[in-house]
Design a protein that fits this description.
This protein is α+β, with helices and mostly antiparallel strands. The protein contains 2 helices and 8 strands; from the N terminus they run E-H-E-E-E-H-E-E-E-E.
Length: 168
């Protein structure tokens, strides 16, 4: 979902967007409610992509400003959540499924790396240019209770003429 091929996960700098490493694309015109609904739909798709039974955390999406743009007219939606499979072994199955499915249906894996934490957690970053969405997955496979940290982030929406951004 970057305009160039530089890649830093969109959620790496919470509260801002459009930093020098990432150019946030326009996601078109939408009300805040419609932008939130689009991100929720993608989060649901990512949940299904795991292909294993589990529980998703209840936290909902948030709305933030698009850097350098009028905060009353432009916004970005982000949805951080956690997925906990029913069994520890299913965490690795979910990661394999995500790697496979985030290479189909308009999704492209842009980055896959191990972080510098003591557990060397696997990170996957994938974009869907048609949906103007990005997902960042961190596999916490070596924790006592394995899980996936997931954040779906939209491109920058503009509200329709005569409306303003509803900040949540």
């Amino acid at each position: 979902m970057t305009d160039d091929n530089a890649r830093t996960p969109l959620s790496s700098d919470p509260g801002t967007s459009g930093g020098s490493a990432v150019k946030i694309p326009s996601a078109g015109t939408a009300t805040t409610d419609d932008g939130v609904a689009a991100v929720k739909a993608v989060s649901s798709q990512i949940y299904e992509f795991t292909g294993v039974a589990g529980t998703a955390s209840a936290a909902g999406p948030g709305v933030r400003e698009c850097a350098g743009k009028d905060p009353d007219r432009y916004f970005q939606v982000y949805h951080p959540w956690n997925f906990k499979p029913k069994s520890a072994a299913d965490n690795d199955v979910a990661v394999r499924n995500l790697k496979e499915r985030l290479s189909t249906g308009g999704w492209v894996i842009k980055d896959s790396y191990r972080d510098n934490s003591p557990n060397k957690n696997l990170n996957l970053v994938a974009d869907n240019d048609a949906k103007k969405m990005s997902v960042w997955v961190v596999a916490y496979s070596k924790r006592t209770t394995p899980s996936l940290g997931i954040e779906v982030t939209s491109g920058c929406y503009q509200v329709p003429e005569g409306e303003t951004v509803e900040h949540s």
